[in-house]
Amino acid sequence: MRDPRYDILFEPVQIGPLTAKNRFYQVPHCNGGGYRDPSAAAAMRGIKAEGGWGVIFTEQCEMHHTSEITPFIELRLWEDKDIPQLRRMSERMKEHGALAGIQLAYSGINGPNLYTKEVPLAPTALPIRTFTNDPVQARALSKSDIRDLRRWFVTATKRSRAAGFDLICLYGAHGFGIFQHFLSRATNQRSDEYGGSLENRARFSQEVIADIREAVGDSMAITLRVSLDESIGALGFSNAELRDYIEMNRNLPDLWDLAQGTWEDCSGPSRFKDEAAQEQLVRGIRELTDQPVVGVGRFTSPDVMVRMVKSGTLDFIGCARPSIADPFLPKKVEKGRIEDIRECIGCNICITGDMTMSISRCTQNPTFMEEWRKGWHPERMNPKGDSSNVLVVGSGPAGLEAAWALCRRGYDVAIAEARKVIGGRVTRERALPGLSAWGRVVDYREYQLGQRANVEIYRQSELDAAAILEFGFQNICIATGSTWRRDGVARQHVVPMPIAPGAQVFTPDDLMEGRLPKGRVVIFDDDHYYMGGVLAELLTKTGAQVTLITPAPFVSDWTRNTLEQGAIHARLVEAGVEIVLNRGVTAIWADHVVTNCVYTGRTRPMEMDSVVVVAARLGNDQLYQDLVGREADWAEAGIRSVRLIGDANAPGPIAWATYAGHRYARELDAPETGDAPSFRREITELAADWPG
Ligand code: ADP
Ligand code: SF4
């Protein structure tokens, strides 16, 4: 049972008129599903309720149609007809005694209104401040607009209550919410009673909260999510100003929700931010108020959580990503199962679901957002099918996840791994600069597999088709990973690029195996995720003179979706890497490369000693092909199925591999789904008044 030193995390805490059953507080987080996938999102929140969270919030909910952030998919509460979908979510949140919260967002200077075509409204007329630099400006709110906006907040709160929510969170952090826009001198340059002094900039939040209190009384609690430090220069809302603001407005909301000023800072990946990274910005704020305080910091360790409470820093432990990686985190602490907590690795793949308007994934928890779509539960597997055993070849993230999920279904599982150490690519990549936390993907599964009697791991066991046919396993899962290409094939070159004999060409695999180029090194990054940037960082540490060339307009272009692109660029500049954007490499000679401008095609030579080609990867599918070639022998060998999964099937990020492993395990022995999708989906209800 629970270790008494964690008892403090299970104390009930008052939030205004309500009481949360414990201190585990799932702060609002996006999921890429939002209004498009309401049942998927509701089921995901319901799993958190089951996992023991005391407070559970929605993602940001656009509270009025005059402010929205299309193309990003969040929630909407514009009319009464939006209530039923939100009620579905609140009901799930409350099933196990959690308080259900809704985050009301008015995006102001952050909402381009591409869908509603309304003119955006903001404290001051300025260009819209989106990631995408939309060519749209907001007009300044007039006094009568402000009166309207106050009324809209009251209406949205009443609708939230009708939808079953207990708490509302007024959004004023991450640069996304109007409360921050009013508080910051960068976005509020008004000369009336809403601008200028901090007292004036605070007026809007005071008025909205007073209006809401008058409207809903004690039937709901009001939380205010404010920016800890806007960190956008001298005009930004600073930590010192925040402290003044809270001191001046001690008991304005029923709870202060403290989050960083930009989303990149708040949800920093483990490559750049440690657990509890916001501690210094939060410390001492609790003494300025009588109300409870929640803060975040990718908390996965219950000891750190206890320290945050005992030191008087926080009353509630706010978690977004840790609650995604393990929705059962509170339950596991409660039951004394600390080692079973599936810790977030801080890769920010979950955020890419929002950034790409698709649907979120989690590297550690492949069931995230599949709770309804596929009926996957993070803690419970479907019962075993007809067959009884599986040989998993390869112990990378795909093989390990497959093995762990299979043994929980009740299959006897053997894992064969060619190398001495299990973990595949994760074992190699965790040694790269900044990626050590990613090792949790392996550590967690290795520990879990060690607790099971029905799994054997065979290390240093490179298998071929003949050996597999001899073993007599019924199901063969090939998860043999991938190899970085040396021939430059990726996006610029769809066939091998010209490489002169004698040219010193390295791949990421070479570097991870310890074969390092020296002297003047060109990294040609046509992969565009983290690898090129990480290797540049690695090589500067070994004394190489590094130039990173990429055809993309950004270093590690795709990491804009993981919110770390800016930090990567800054780190490389500081490490002395020369960055060449919008240029490709057309040919590699022994002593130089030829680069080309992606717009004009103009070429120029660049001298170097060696080149690291970060191109595509090739799936290691030879073993699978060999087995398929011997299909005639399967029946005699007792083989019922052979499947290729993970990077060996189609290389992708680690999250794709854990998903593939989990899916393989879930679907083993299941009837074929035919040509239909393998997941449930919702479609928009057609208008009843057609043709209208
Ligand atoms: P994924 O990301 O798909 O899980 P990885 O590259 O991380 O793939 O892992 C694949 C693992 O499979 C590596 O550890 C590799 O050593 C192992 N492997 C590859 N071929 C064989 C084989 N023939 N027999 C046993 N293990 C193999
Ligand atoms: Fe954590 Fe990565 Fe999962 Fe997001 S995707 S919750 S950062 S492990």
Summarize the structure.
It contains 22 helices and 28 strands.
Spell out the key features of this protein.
17% strand, 28 strands, alpha/beta, 30% helix, globular, 692 residues, binds adenosine-5'-diphosphate, FAD/NAD(P)-binding domain, five-stranded parallel sheet, TIM Barrel, binds iron/sulfur cluster, Rossmann fold, eight-stranded parallel beta barrel, 3 domains
What does this structure look like?
The model has no long low-confidence stretch (mean pLDDT 97). The chain has 692 residues and is an alpha/beta fold. Helix content is 30%, strand content 17%. The site of iron/sulfur cluster has 13 residues, from helix 10 and helix 12. Iron/sulfur cluster binds next to helix 10 and helix 12.
Give the helices and strands, then pairings.
Blueprint lengths: L12 E3 L2 E3 L3 E3 L11 H13 L4 E8 L12 E2 L6 H12 L4 E7 L15 E2 L16 E2 L2 H20 L4 E6 L5 H6 L14 H19 L4 E7 L11 H10 L6 E5 L3 H4 L12 H4 L10 E3 L6 H9 L5 E4 L1 H5 L3 H6 L14 H7 L33 E5 L3 H13 L2 E5 L7 H6 L10 H11 L4 E4 L6 H7 L3 E4 L3 E3 L20 E2 L1 H5 L7 E6 L4 H12 L3 E5 L15 H10 L3 E3 L2 E6 L3 E6 L5 E5 L2 E5 L2 E3 L2 H8 L4 H4 L3 E4 L9 H14 L25
Parallel strand pairs: 3-4, 3-13, 4-5, 4-6, 6-9, 7-8, 9-10, 10-11, 11-12, 12-13, 14-15, 14-17, 15-16, 17-28, 19-26, 20-21, 20-26, 21-22
Antiparallel strand pairs: 1-2, 18-27, 23-24, 24-25
Helix pairs in contact: 1-2, 3-5, 13-15, 13-22, 16-20, 18-19
This protein binds adenosine-5'-diphosphate and iron/sulfur cluster.
Iron/sulfur cluster binds next to helix 10 and helix 12.
